[in-house]
Amino acid sequence: MTYLQAFIIAVIEGLTEFLPVSSTGHMILADSLLKVKDPEFTKTFEIVIQLGAIFSVVLLYRKRFLKSFGIYLKLFVAFIPTGIIGVLAYKTIKMYLFNPLTVSISLIVGGLVLIGLDRWSKKEEQMYADLEELGYLAAFKIGLIQCLSMVPGVSRAAATIFGGIYTGFNREQAAEFSFLLAVPTMMAAAGYDLLKEKDNIHSDDLSILLFGGLVAFIVAFLAIKAFIAFLNKYGFKYFGYYRILLGIAFLLFAYASGLELQP
Fold it and tell me: Looking at residue 203, what DSSP letter applies?
């Protein structure tokens, strides 16, 4: 992997990790287009830069994390379904669904869902004045919906934001809970993958890993702030349109160029 490829992938990760557009899906498409060599190292690289994005949430929401112990319990309950299903099914999902065809279809379907969510969320009444008021059952439901994001292209952010609005959050609250839930979810997923891929990490690779992690951290930090402002002003529909256009455009490009969709 070159530093230019690392920069492009890290920027994509930072921009998309906390938006409802699927960072994993974007990176799978980018890997395919960039023709990045050494797929094993690429997998490790993408895990490390996710950790960089996570730290941007920790920094931005440090006051929320320190506000009360209750939020940790709600996040733990929401994480349980993903943790269990992830251990049981993630290997199979990664083997059969981590390909550009699945991503493209998921982007299109998810885009339609986001357009519907944009209209629905305007009609739904806010049930909570603060994130702390969320009940444990509602947190668990959000965690169950988050499991859908194991399919690449669905988007963890989109799934959890949908779950948050379904359980009574307004748009901004749903987005903030999604950011907070990303910390234990992504830390667990990244830690699990890094443990499996530790033999692929060599001292010569450290500089490019640190470079990618730093780029993802900076871009994610800026993207989160911009996303909240955009969400309050425009809602979800434009993310839906973007997903649909990207999915269709990639399928057409793959067909025209003979790009393999299911390697």
Answer: G
